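Reopening this one. Same input as before:
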Amino acid sequence: MRILLAALMCLVLSLSECFAISGGPIFGGGNVTTTGIYAGVLYPRTRSNSIGLFSVPVPKTGLGSGTVFVFANQSAYNGTMQATANPDSGLFTGYIDSGFNFVDTVRTGADKDGNPTFTVITVRAVASGRIDGKVKAKESVLSRASARLTGSSLLEFNPDFFGTGGITYDVIGFKQSEL
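Same output, byte for byte:
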């Protein structure tokens, strides 16, 4: 009986080694690679008719450059996002620069008869600000994303058509693929 039990234990121990995780278990964000292509959404913290979308690659060296779209203040801002991520701490930092051009008419004075004169100018409306986030390894076995991105962002608008003073967003994203 002891020999049968010993043989079964050898079989169980051999099989359990086959299913072991290489390098040990993953506890928290220490074993996450920060390079890759990230996509995410900017949700306003306060009740606001606003949302933002972005996609940006984060390379091993240098800054990644991607696209961003922000819908706020009844306007659509499109532009670029520069980002980097620290592989040791998992900190993700990005800068958003987006905007759109519009035409405005400005009163410039009066002619010799006293009639007002106007000049048509093109003005660029800008939405810009930082994203501060954290890249974390997936928490669920059922998750298909290799990493999650969470954080916050404050975007300021110039001109500020509705006097918002800027909008604070929660950032929720994920790594779409490796580079």
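So the earlier flakiness isn't reproducible anymore. For the record, Residues 137 and 147 are 5 Å apart (CA to CA).
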